[in-house]
Amino acid sequence: MSSDRELPQILKQRLFYQGRKFNFDVATLRLPNGAEGEWECIRHPGGALAVPVTPEGKLVLVRQYRFAAQGRILEFPAGTIEVNENPAETIKREIEEETGYRAGKWQKLGQFLLAPGYSDEIIYAFLAQDLEKLEKPPAQDDDEDMETVLFTPEELEKAILAGEPIDAKSISSFFLARPFLT
């Protein structure tokens, strides 16, 4: 859906912080009504996420410590897209690293902006099926603290509706995958 409305004009943009995984920009904008102000944005290369389904119909998730939330969050395996990497390559790497599973069948579910009020991050969601457990899973990254957990689709939906700590990208992707889950 597009609009014929005029877009704000960028008057000035500066890099405020350059981090390991994202940058933080501050821009001065002039709105179509003439008002000017500063807007902040987290610039992120994007991420890829898998909704992994075992042959028995169980969903493979990770329970991961997240500093910003000061606790462990239930999530589908996901990762940041590296330089010169496409989202499909990212998630094939991440699912093995984070869960110890490899998928034989992949289907793109869609993509969505994660938090457009302050970030340009796009999540690319995939359905991962025909899973096989790796004999020797790769070691987790040094900065990761996670455990693999299995849920039926019904159990996960109940956890979401009960307000369990589950991140938005996983909830969104679960509902994108729901029509394909038996």
Write the layout of secondary structure elements.
Layout lengths: L8 E10 L4 E8 L5 E8 L3 E6 L6 E8 L4 E5 L2 E3 L6 H13 L1 E13 L8 E12 L12 E6 L1 H9 L6 H10 L5
Protein name: NUDIX hydrolase
InterPro entries: NUDIX_hydrolase-like_dom_sf (IPR015797), NUDIX_hydrolase_CS (IPR020084), NUDIX_hydrolase_dom (IPR000086)
Pfam families: NUDIX
Model description:
- This protein is of the alpha+beta class and 182 residues long.
- Helices cover 18% and strands 43% of the residues.
- The protein has helices spanning 87-99, 153-161, 168-177; strands at 9-18, 23-30, 36-43, 47-52, 59-66, 71-75, 78-80, 101-113, 122-133, 146-151.
- The strands form 3 sheets. It has a 4-stranded mixed β-sheet with strand order 7-4-9-8, sandwiched between helices.
- Strand 2 and strand 3 form a beta hairpin.
- The longest helix has 13 residues, at 87-99.
Low-pLDDT runs: none
Q: Looking at the structure, what is the overall shape?
A: elongated
Structural class: alpha+beta
**Main pleated-sheet profile:** 4 strands, mixed
Number of helices: 3
Mean pLDDT comes to 94
Radius of gyration: 19 Å
State the share of residues found in helices, binned by percent.
10-25%
Number of distinct beta strands:
10
Which percent range describes the beta-strand content?
Answer: 35-45%
Cα distance spanning the termini: 32 Å
What string, H for helix and E for strand, traces the elements in order? Answer: EEEEEEEHEEEHH
The spatial strand order of the largest sheet comes to 7-4-9-8
Organism: Microcoleus anatoxicus PTRS2
InterPro entries: NUDIX_hydrolase-like_dom_sf, NUDIX_hydrolase_CS, NUDIX_hydrolase_dom
Protein name: NUDIX hydrolase
Pfam families: NUDIX (PF00293)
